[in-house]
Amino acid sequence: MKKLLSIFTMLLLASLSLFAKATIVGIAMPETHVLRWTKDGESLKKEAEKRGYSGLVQYGNADQAQQNQQIQSFLTQGAKILIIGNINDGVTSVVEEAARDKAVVVAYDRIIQGTTNYSAFITFNNYKVGTLQGQGIEKALNLPAATTAAPKYITLFAGSPTDANANFFYQGAMDVLNPYLKKGVLKVVGPYPETYKDTSNFQKIATENWSGPLAKTRLENLLNNDASKITLDAVLAPNDTLGRAIIEACKADAKYRSKLPVVTGQDAEFDSAVSIKNGEQYMTVFKDTAKLAEAAVILADALAKGEKPNIPGAILADGDLKEIGYTGTGYVATYLLDPIGITKENVNVPVDAGFYTAEETAKLK
Hints:
Layout: H1 2-18, E1 24-29, H2 35-50, E2 54-59, H3 64-76, E3 81-84, H4 92-100, E4 104-108, E5 120-124, H5 126-140, E6 152-156, H6 165-183, E7 186-188, H7 199-205, H8 212-224, E8 234-236, H9 240-251, E9 262-263, H10 270-277, E10 284-286, H11 289-304, E11 315-316, E12 334-337, E13 340-342, H12 348-352, H13 358-364
Parallel strand pairs: 1-2, 1-3, 3-4, 4-5, 5-12, 6-7, 6-8, 8-9
Antiparallel strand pairs: 10-13, 11-12
Helix pairs in contact: 2-11, 3-4, 5-6, 8-9
């Protein structure tokens, strides 16, 4: 009888362990109108669950108050790990709340400003993203051979002013382009902040919430005014959403119907990959967000277990790159993955990485 009771007890305990609640990983993404964030949310959930966690995903609809409520809901449900792609620095209050609850908080692809009271930041080398965009323009326009007698013309766009990454994208590009501007072989039409620290001019080229319609309207106004008697050779666009909106505006202008300006981008979105293949958008930057999601969960898992992170393909930011981890009040440990520039010549790279659906892949092959 005692033996039977012992066996029953062991089976009961084993059964209960199967139904024990897995540790919750709360995944807060900023919005869905930029397609990559939907993919990121799905990839993060998958990677968390692969490691035995319960992954919960919410999208903030570009509304920080809404995202804060979602994060508080994660904490109320007992989340011990939070992975946050924030909207703006209004997230700081709930990050401080998470710290009081001793939750591991990883800032995902966007630094959390105004505090260092969280665990780590993981992103791509966003300065290099901008460098690749600048180099794309440099190559496409053959700027080393350009002359002051026949200068090239460019207009400049930056990302959301509430997204600190926008600063690094812009600076990386301008560190490539500024020497040509100083020589006079490249000229800016419209506002020209030499660096993102020129706040007054940077605000003029920034695009609130990475909004395509805002970018399109701004370029339409430029084409009808400052650029009405000039043919633009290039447009620095910081991501694909803005790049495609800019191309749409150019297509409506008779001057660009036979030849579009060189337009950059970022995120290797499917529609932009098609555009690149068709010879419209010139380039994008591929950031393998599936690898970033995997790296973020590896990082969060190690921190939750009190272990030293060992993330394949990532470096701990140091030297000049350490600035990517500056929150305005101090530095957080920042891990960086490498991006890849994509043009018509190597558009197969994100395809081969399995970045697109089977249906999308078929259209790109």
